[in-house]
Amino acid sequence: MATAQELWERAKPLVRRRMSFTPDLWRSVEAAVPVTIDGTTFVLGLAPENENLRGYLETHTMMALLREILRELTGEAMEVVIIMGTTEEDWQRHKIRQEQVRRLTSRTAEVTTRKAKERDWSWFIHQLDHDHAHLSHRQYDFVKAGFLLDCAQKAAEFALDYLAHHPDRKEEVTRELERVCQRLAGMLNAPAIVIGMEIERALRERQKESKE
Q1: If pLDDT is split at 50, 70 and 90, which confidence band does 211 have?
Q2: What is the pTM of this model?
Q3: What CATH number does the domain containing 28 carry?
Q4: Residues 65, 18: contact at Cβ < 8 Å?
Q5: Are residues 109 and 20 part of one domain?
Q6: How many domains does the chain have?
Q7: In the beta sheet, which residues pair with residue 38?
Q8: How far apart are CA 150 and CA 195, in angstroms?
Q9: Are residues 71 and 43 in the same domain?
Q10: What is the pLDDT at residue 183?
Q11: What contacts 71, CB < 8 A, 6 or more positions away?
Q12: Nearest Cα to 74, choosing from 32, 34, 33, 37?
């Protein structure tokens, strides 16, 4: 297979002919240095003094054109990466940085997922308070009834999801559902036992659906 330098010398005239001409884009192509071919990745580098030209090479149109021309010349699909630096060492440092970013992103996603799973009952009750505060016409009994039914479904869903992650905390769930009943009773000026019946009905419906 041709070296990066050889491949770029063949590709560059085709790029010039097919690209939409602008002075900055022309300069960016002239400034690009073929660094290496890493598997199916063609690496172009820019010296630090040409960093302002990077954006012209990384446009969607330009990257697509580069991939198209490289495929014509090599017969295989190739990815194109633009890096700062013009040596193999710069490419290796770029890969290390990208791997560090990938790991950090992965860890951040894991923490976010874990926190989502660990949402506790205080969070859930806060959500109920928030929803009620933003409920339009909450002085009407009909609106209160709809809000109660929605909350009962949410409470049942949250309780079953919580139990799925904490199967040994059934007593805690019972206590917290009682707290939910009392909070909703205060919001809606309704008997807590009525609210409890709606939550229990929603729980039984969901448990029945899961068995079917």
Answers
A1: confident
A2: 0.53
A3: 3.30.300.180
A4: yes
A5: yes
A6: 2
A7: 41
A8: 11
A9: yes
A10: 94
A11: 77, 78
A12: 37
Give the DSSP letter of residue 33: E
Amino acid 211 reads K
Q: Which of 33, 22, 17 is nearest to 65 (CA)?
A: 17
Q: Tell me: the pLDDT tens digits for 133-169?
A: 999 998 999 999 999 999 999 999 999 998 988 899 9
State whether 21 and 87 are in the same domain.
yes
Token couple for 206: 């969901």
Please give the residue range of the domain that contains residue 94. Answer: 4-113
Is 212 inside any structural domain?
no
**Do 104 and 151 share a domain, yes or no?**
no
Per-residue pLDDT tens over the stretch 167-210: 999 999 999 999 999 999 999 999 999 999 999 999 999 988 87
Q: From 78, 113, 148, give the residue that closes a domain.
A: 113
Q: Which two tokens stand for residue 130?
A: 């928030």
Nearest CA among 67, 81, 50, 65 for reference residue 16: 65
53 CB contacts (<8 Å, ≥6 apart)? 24, 27, 28, 31, 46
Confidence of residue 56 (pLDDT cuts 50, 70, 90): very high
Q: Do 51 and 13 form a contact (C-beta atoms < 8 A)?
A: no
What letters, b where the CB count within 10 A reaches 16 and e where it falls short, cover 98-121? eeeeeeeeeeeeeeeeeeeeeeeb
